[in-house]
Amino acid sequence: MHKREAFREAFDRFDCRKVALYDETKIEDLMKNEKIIRNRLKIKSAIINAQQFINIQKEYGSFDSFIWSYVDNKPIENHFDTEGDIPARTALSDKISKDLKKHGFKFIGSTIIYAYMQAIGIVNDHVKSCHLYKA
Asked: Which residues of 91-125 are buried (b: 16+ CB within 10 A; e: fewer)?
């Protein structure tokens, strides 16, 4: 998280259309950037994922439509008592991860997908004692 701004700057503010066009010269520039994680496979996967993200947008109208179709556009409301009860992954995150890999995405495991599902509100994992639990 502490490198987020450096990544945002290095990857053109995460503009998928720009990242999708990165070439070997840009990859080499990124490999020299000491402010980010310089793993060639992960950098290349970011480019591939940007390309696949655009492909899904074209196929489904938007990535939003694609991802929310897994839950029929209704968030999953969980009822956990403690944060320790919250899983790192679920059968649904396994399925989405597998489907994204079929679409060509890289470095897109189930744990990452579950965290994404929480971040965008597909899954509401606020524990019962949290002030946001009912929201």
From this structure: ebbeebbeebeeeebeebebeebbebbbeeebbbb
CB 60 within 8 Å of CB 69: yes
pLDDT in tens, 80-97: 999 999 999 999 999 999
Cα–Cα distances in Å, from 89 out to 59, 98, 104, 110, 135? 27, 13, 21, 6, 22
Q: How large is the angle between the packed helices 91-102 and 110-120, nearest 10 degrees?
A: 110
The structure's pTM equals: 0.90
